[in-house]
Amino acid sequence: MGNEKRFRVIIVGGGVGGLAAAHALEKANIDHVLLEKGQIAPERGASIGIYPHAARILTQLGMFRAVEDMTYPIEKAKDLLPDGTVYCVSDFKTRADMSQSELTATHHDGKSYLVIGGRDFTFWFVFFKIDRVHWPAMRRWTQADAEKHAAGCMDDPISETQVFGELWKTAVRYELVNVEEGLFKHMFFGRVVLAGDAVHKMTPNIGLGGNTAIESIVVLTNILNRAIRDHPHGKPDRAALQKLLAEYQNKRRKRLQEFIDFSSLATKMQAWETTWYKILSRVVPFLPDNSFAKQASNLFKAAPKLDFVPVPGNPQGTVKWNDEVAGSEIKEAKSKQFHGKKAQSIVSWITAPLLSMCALVSLVYMVQGAKAMGGG
Questions:
Q1: CA distance linking residue 270 with residue 179, whole number of Å
Q2: Helix or strand or coil: residue 208?
Q3: CB burial class (10 A; 0-12, 13-18, 19+) of residue 325?
Q4: pLDDT tens for residues 328-353?
Q5: Residues 270-279: what's their mean pLDDT?
Q6: By C-alpha distance, which of 336, 338, 340, 302 is closest to 319?
Q7: Using H for helix, E for strand and C for coil, what is the string for 289-316?
C-alpha cells in the first residue's frame, strides 16, 4: 500500500489553460507536472481580456491583484463606419483609481478592425472574411502574406483621426493566422482530456477564449478533487476516471456552445458577413443600454468556481453569482432551458427586439418614401 503511486496529472502546454491547471491542481494538492516544448506563456496573442467570471477564479488562485496591476480597463468603446464616422459610443464604469483605455471597432463588408489601447502597447486586429475551410486544408500564412494583406488596408480609418497605415508603421510584432472556431463532440479519450483551444475554440472579437479555458480547468479540477478525496486510496481506477471525464464533458458542452455562438455573433456583425448582420450592427445601438449587460450577466453569473477554495474578501458585484443565491439549484435547473434552446440563447435573445426594430425602421423608410413620391 505504501508503495502505491499517487494520482498524477500530466499537463501538456504552458499557455493560459495549462498554467491555470497547474495553479488549480496545486490548490487541490493534486500531484502534477507541466510539459511545454517551447516557451512558457509565449507572447503569441494580441492581449487578453479578463471578465468577471475569470477574475473570481484568479482571486481564488491568489493572482488577480497581480493581473489587475497590469491591466487597463476599457472605459469606452466606439463603433465606426468604413469612412471613420462614429455611429455608436458605449461607456463602461471603472474604478476611479484605475487607468482606462479605449476600444474601437471599424466595420466593413467582409472585413473589420479592432483596436485596443493599452498601458505600453496598442493591440490591434484586422479580420478578413475568406471561404470556410477545414483542417487539414487550412493554409499557413507567412510574413509576406501578412504584409500583402496589410498593404490593402493602409488608408482605412481606425478612428476619427487615424488610418491603419499609421498604426502599421509602429508595429512591434504582427502575424497572419486563421481564425478557428468549433467545439469537439468528444472532449476526452481514455485518460486523455482536453480543455481550452485544443477542444473549444471561438473567434477572438470579444476576448472570451482564455476566460473559457480557465472555466473548463476549474470544472475539471473540482471533479478530480472530489473523486480523489472520496476514493478509499485517493486514486480512482480507469472505470471511475471514465465516468469523471464524461461528467466534465456533459457539464461543459452547452455552456461552451453559448460562448462560441456569442463570439461568432460579434465577429459576423463587425465584418458585416451578410446584409442581415450589417442591419444588426446598425440597430443594436438603439436597444436599451442594459440589454447587452443583462444577457451577458446571465451567462457570466452561472460560471463555476473552485468549490474547495474560498473567494478572499467575498467581493460583491451588482449581479449575484448563481452559486451565492439561495435555491440556486432550482435556478440552475430552470436555466437549462436558457442553455438548451436556440430561441433563448445569447445569439437569439437579440432577434425578437431587432425584428421589431427592423420592422419599425422599414416602416419609417416606407412612410418617408411615400411622402417623397407624394411631394413630387
A1: 14
A2: coil
A3: middle
A4: 444 454 444 444 444 344 445 454 44
A5: 92
A6: 302
A7: CCHHHHHHHHHHCCCCCCCCCCCCCCCC
Q: Residue 175 pLDDT more than 60?
A: yes
In which element (H, E) is residue 91 found?
strand 86-91
DSSP 8-class letter at 138: P
How would you label 194-227 residue by residue, b for 16+ Cβ within 10 Å and e otherwise? bbbbbbbbbbbbbbbbbbbbbbbbbbbbbbbbeb
**Nearest-CA neighbor of 275 among 193, 371, 349, 358?**
358
- Give the integer Cα–Cα distance in Å for 9 and 22: 9
Instruction: Note the pLDDT tens digit of each residue in 48-89.
Output: 888 999 999 999 999 999 988 888 788 888 999 999 999 888
Q: Is the pLDDT of residue 92 over 80?
A: no
- pLDDT at residue 100 greater than cutoff 80: no
Strands 31-35 and 8-12: parallel
Could you report how far apart the first and last alpha carbons of the chain are, in Å? 96
Angle at 336 between CA 330 and CA 342, to 5 degrees: 155
Q: Which three cell numbers stand for residue 118?
A: 493599452
Residues 6+ apart with CB under 8 A from 301: 53, 319, 320, 321, 322
109-137 average pLDDT score: 87
Residue with cell 502599421: 168
* Spatial separation of the C-alpha atoms in residues 298 and 322, rounded to whole Å: 9
Q: Evaluate whether 100 touches 73 at the Cβ level (below 8 Å).
A: yes
Per the CB < 8 A criterion, the answer to whether 212 and 256 are in contact is: yes
Q: Is the pLDDT of residue 13 over 80?
A: yes
User: DSSP label at 206?
Assistant: S
